[in-house]
From TrEMBL, chains A, B, C:
It comes from Sphingomonas natans. SUPFAM superfamilies: Bet v1-like, ISP domain. This is Aromatic ring-hydroxylating dioxygenase subunit alpha. InterPro entries: Cholesterol_7-desaturase (IPR050584), Rieske_2Fe-2S (IPR017941), Rieske_2Fe-2S_sf (IPR036922), VanA_C_cat (IPR044043). The lineage of its organism: Bacteria, Pseudomonadati, Pseudomonadota, Alphaproteobacteria, Sphingomonadales. GO terms for molecular function: dioxygenase activity.
Length: 351, 351, 351
């Protein structure tokens, strides 16, 4: 009775979060252990020794293997036992721990949730700005005490910025720009095109020139649980359009990928990819700190929302005009789950 | 399966606890938001935005309305939407949050729990000493981790003072005075009349004269969940009787009103109304501090009792002679609930 | 649906833990109160006043009786009411609290869990080294957040010392000595005989002579939930054998008795009895501190194991060669329980 898609890739970690030392992380209710082999491959296995279930993350890595800290069963990177607790006992290679398909791409470690036989790296969401030439990308990771879908709702509707981020990035004029919501297959897009406006200071600094700009904000829901927000400005007359604004100005992508931990908690991987000032590490560090502060404002709201949902079991979430993007994203998820096991939802659409 | 009466007024707050800023309080398992309009009316509404359920108590009051801090839905004091999150969206006045009937009387804010159509201010318990001419009233509010009925038991039997309040107000001689328990309709009374006794220091100070006194303690259970204790002394010969002791001496009422929060927690509103030294604010402040200290002794016992009830599910509460008042009060509650849905009770009467 | 044997004696406390002041302790899910009478008998009763269930452990001992701190009901050491809350109320000696059979032996206070009529002191496990002439015994008590059977598993297999106690007592050579597992009736034994080995420093100091030794470690499971480990060394040639090593060298018994608190927590009573340097109190104190430190390493592992069992409900504990002793001990327990109500087990044997 899970509320997430299966047979999908989910972000398990930032690339830099996983190194030789074991990292424990619960993903879609399963305790998982992550570490890298000497040749830098990421290994993911169930974080429980097949012998007496002590978390293997408490164990000791020996070469590319993990030795359990309770009785010393040694497990290789393929999950198969390599040494019994008692050296005199004959090795039983039927003893093994479940391992998971892993792929590393676009600065993230992706874990396949579902039937391992179906894991295909070609299915990894295309976060191209995170790894393309001429771009730079950095960000952070927070554990949030809410259903991951509340974060999708949040990100597919940027009008919340006015209220939640009143003290930081909220700009009332965003509320006045018309939005367009579209979907095709599993993709959902919420677009805001603001032609001939004053550039806010951040974007003027990025563009390094004065004068009116065409500005855009395009939120993309990417199944199973990411939101990529294409943001930027181009000088008026440079020829940028909603359909084509790749080379006319400065551009960034707010990257948000949510991985369920339990039904009411998730991992939030967030960051910013940009195609300007890409060698300015001071800019990168300052922006990451600012973005972390903005998302802390969201987290306070989202965790309060989750507690309120649990405290008001007779009430349902309602959707208004601004929620079109989130509603469609939830439909994509639910449709997919219903193909498999049925997911309960407290969403009622009153658009 | 609640253990409290419905279609009744319950104390939601002291009058002074509620002002312009929103106050969040769970009453009978429902998260409630309280605030005052500019003309000082108290508004009570479900503490969850009808849009995405963020607690409205996290919102911002604008005039007499509340604006949700997530997407900015604005709700009027009648609970009806006044402004959509997106200014361009047509207002849908079908969007509303549940509001509750409120009455202010005897220094308390009362909230109607049940069918709003039946809310009748005439049904508010008559706490006359809290607001009568020639009387003064003050007190406090504590959240207690116990079933509210354990507090009723506690207050309908003052013999516990000897043990629980040994270090403060406990007086062994109270144990020797005979008590009389009576009930009529929903009213239950436990009376103790002590003729020709020495006045304890507190009462001698109040009376401002020496010599023997007639002393009384009369506990009144007032449905659905209050206990009012009429206490005082009159000089011997002044003609005071159990039936008539209103003007012969000095008199106070210990006011106790318990409002269920959950099945195992409640709000405890307590205070003292008195008809002597009514302008002596120093006395009022000192007495409130003392009363708070005495009730803290009760709270320690009551929360331990609640934990023990849960830890010993095979045991039942038993009633002895001293518990007659509490037993009858619980019967009043249970009889009323059984008219509605059946309430479980772990009370077994062995009087 | 309990996972422990009933109609058995369990350790409730060290003798010195119980004195005149009431001690509260939950044993096999039942809140229990322990104290001593003036003539030093230990009394055990349900820790809930029969009146309103306040823990009697919050009460005041008066002579050999306990007076409840709520309304003053006085309970004698036989569990029968001796005084009502109201002195004028006729004493009802049908009012009583459940008492439990208690026996004091081998430095422990034992409590009979089950049908009191069957309590027979002859059934107390024979911890003779804890009280025999020429021996000394001391130890400690910890509350551990795990099923008591995980501690039995732990103690019936000492190979875990190499990994869990790598920084303290772990010795890899123990892993190489062959073990023999035997059982008869409810007794289970895991024996390790190491002839002609170097004595480790601890044992050389105890033996007070150099030269090779015969060394032994014999783990005895003693139903319902103790493990006694016979350890020691004798000079080569002194004639010690696995069957007879009582007088040829120095010997100690690691005493471990586990008493269930809930299904996932227990009391751990541990200590060391020895037949050498028995008057050296400094040795006793130092060894107890060291042993406490070693067991703290186990507790960290055991509580992590318990959490992992709960977090991985689809996985089962597996048994390898080293687990033979624990597996047989669990079978003894399960067989006994199945005679009564069926106990669930997550043990799957793959030895």
């Amino acid at each position: 009775m899970s509320s997430w898609m299966v047979d999908r890739w989910y972000v398990a970690a930032w690339d830099a979060e996983v190194d030789r030392a074991p990292v424990a992380r619960t993903i879609c209710r399963v305790p998982i252990l992550l570490y890298r082999t000497l040749d830098r491959r990421v290994i993911a296995m169930r974080d429980a020794c097949p012998h007496r279930l002590l978390p293997l993350s408490m164990g000791i890595r020996e070469g590319d293997s993990i030795r359990c800290r309770y009785h010393g069963l040694k497990i290789g990177p393929d999950g198969v036992a390599e040494e019994m607790p008692l050296k005199t006992e004959r090795l039983n290679t039927a003893i093994c721990v479940e391992t998971y398909a892993i792929a590393e791409k676009h600065r993230f470690v992706w874990l396949w949730v579902g039937d391992k036989a179906k894991a295909d790296p070609a299915l990894i969401p295309d976060f191209w700005p995170c790894s393309a030439e001429g771009w730079t990308f950095d960000g952070g990771h927070d554990r949030v005490g809410c259903d991951y879908r509340l974060l999708i709702d949040n990100l597919m509707d940027l009008t919340h910025e006015t209220h939640v981020h009143a003290g930081s990035i909220g700009q009332p004029e965003l509320m006045e720009a018309p939005i367009e919501t579209a979907s095709e297959g599993e993709a959902v897009t919420v677009s805001r095109w603001m032609p001939g406006v004053d550039a806010p200071p951040f974007w003027r600094g990025a563009l390094k020139q004065d004068g009116p700009v065409d500005r855009w904000q395009v939120c993309h829901f990417v199944a199973p649980s990411s939101v990529i927000i294409d943001v930027g400005v181009a000088p008026v007359g440079a020829g940028a359009t909603l359909a084509d604004h790749d080379r006319q100005g400065v551009r960034g992508f707010v990257i948000d990928s949510m991985t369920p931990e339990t039904g009411t908690s998730c991992h939030y991987f967030w960051g910013m990819a940009r195609n300007f000032d890409i060698s300015d590490q001071g800019f990168t560090a300052r922006f990451k700190r600012q973005q972390g502060g903005v998302f802390a404002e969201d987290i306070e709201i989202l965790e309060a929302q989750q507690r309120s949902i649990l405290a008001n079991p007779d009430l349902k979430l309602r959707a208004y005009a601004i929620d079109g993007g989130g509603v469609r994203a939830r439909r994509v998820i639910e449709r997919d789950i219903q193909g498999g096991p049925r997911a309960p939802s407290n969403e009622s659409i009153a658009a």
